[in-house]
Amino acid sequence: MPLASIPTPYLTIAEVAGSLRVSKMTVYRLVRAHALASIRFGKSYRISEKAVEDYLRKTTLPAEP
After folding, report:
1. What is the spatial distance between Cα 34 and Cα 52, in angstroms, rounded to a whole number?
2. How far, in Å, CA of 12 to CA of 39, rounded?
3. Which domains does the chain have, with CATH numbers?
């Protein structure tokens, strides 16, 4: 499969931390707890944008009536 056909971009730990406005250590904890799906490339992790969206959807409280 060519790289161009990969549908979802992958983010680094630092990029996820910046977009969620949390520390990198918090993102590492979420990854290690399997709360945030990730892929490991060598010694670094990559997280798909879809995994971040799924995590936010799963952890967001429903609106009050």
Report:
1. 12
2. 10
3. 3-59 (3.90.105)
